[in-house]
Amino acid sequence: MTAASRTWRVLNLDMGVSEPERVLLARAASVAGIDPALVRSCRIARRSVDARRRGNSRRLRFVVHADLVLDADYTGVRFDAAVRSGRVVEAAQPGTFKVDAPVKGPGRVVVVGSGPAGLYAALVLAINGVAVDVIDRGAELKPRGLDVVRFHRTRVPNTESNLLFGEGGAGTYSDGKLYTRVDDPLEAPCLEELVACGAPPDILYDSRAHIGTDKLHKILPVLRGRMESLGVRFHWNTRLDGLVLDAGDSDDGAARRR
Questions:
Q1: What is the 3-state secondary structure (H, E, C) of 11-45?
Q2: pTM
Q3: What pLDDT digit, counting tens, does each position of 119-134 carry?
């Protein structure tokens, strides 16, 4: 049985832009006052570029936060001092999409919109055993792309399938910028899902990470396939105009197809 562990984050490490990642373990362990041989694993948690001028010169560098996994009961004089100083802090445990008791009820849940929020809502529901239908007034990726190209050429928009409506939502054409990094426990599984679908692994830690529109157009069909394998049904060109609420226990709604 593997012994319990804790993850500690070493803050604000200085790395040259040309330095290999393998130097990180020794540097982080030194700052934390730890023998590198006692570190179970080391990974970049955050990385940003510092191009500020210092005096009369400017030295481009990375500022890195590194996560070190140690035995849960590890302690040491230098390590404890680094924790007290605030240079080393305990890292938040990553969240998970899986809940302890999957919810399975009658009928299916309808998610309106296939933007990032809609896709992740449907994915989490499906992972936990809920039957899901995703509806979007726009088209799936390939025909949506043709609609967007036609708009750029003619300046005549398709009011239902365009830069806003369709698979992936408005983010499909926004270069996939991932600038909202709030250290939420669900940040890690959200980004890991994108990486599993083909996004570059450095989005897991780059502070100004972006995927790129060209890569997003390859990632979205993979994500859709993963969700369909979990039982999610997608309904394109389907517009929600209103809801008809039943006075009883039914959660019937009305979605009109156009």
A1: EEEEEECCCCHHHHHHHHHHHHCCCHHHCCEEEEE
A2: 0.80
A3: 999 999 999 999 999 9
